[in-house]
Design goal:
153 residues; alpha+beta; Nucleoside Triphosphate Pyrophosphohydrolase; 3 helices
């Protein structure tokens, strides 16, 4: 039996010394690096979910979403929740792009073990899945274009 599941998160970045850095978080449950994301709660918009998950998983509260960036990662996984155990899940993860000046603080629920700010090249080395690398590249290129247009250094 197949089930559909949607999560929302964000590629969070900051610019330090002219370099674009992305925040990767380490999931204790999955034992891999990725981006803050989580399940949509009832009556919650995608952006509300992204903001809540970012706060819960990183402690970061002040973020600015970048206009006109939204991408979707679609894949199949074996269910991990009690309601989906042993089922194949059609997973959709919607990612936004957001900037911050805050630093990684902590995970509220200990689901996230640590966070790292990495440049694009280093970040791709920490990511396990090709889809994530490809989507991060599109986020990186988008930030570079916005940075160049606005003259941010």
């Amino acid at each position: 039996m197949e089930t559909k599941e949607t999560s929302v998160g964000a590629f969070i970045y900051k610019i330090e010394n002219g370099e674009i850095l992305f925040l990767l978080v380490y999931s204790e449950r999955n034992k891999e690096w990725g981006f803050p994301k989580g399940h949509v709660e009832p009556n919650e918009t995608e952006l509300e979910t992204a903001k809540r998950e970012i706060k819960e998983e990183t402690g970061i509260e002040n973020i600015d979403f970048v206009k006109d960036f939204r991408c979707v990662d679609t894949y199949k996984i074996k269910g991990t929740l009690s309601t989906t155990k042993n089922r194949i899940i059609d997973k959709n993860v919607i990612y936004y792009l957001a900037s911050t000046k805050e630093d990684f603080k902590c995970s509220v629920d200990n689901e996230i073990g640590q966070g790292k700010w990495l440049n694009f090249s280093s970040a791709t080395e920490f990511l396990k899945h090709d889809n994530q690398k490809k989507l991060l590249k599109s986020a990186y290129m988008f930030v570079k274009e916005v940075k160049n247009e606005s003259g941010i250094k």
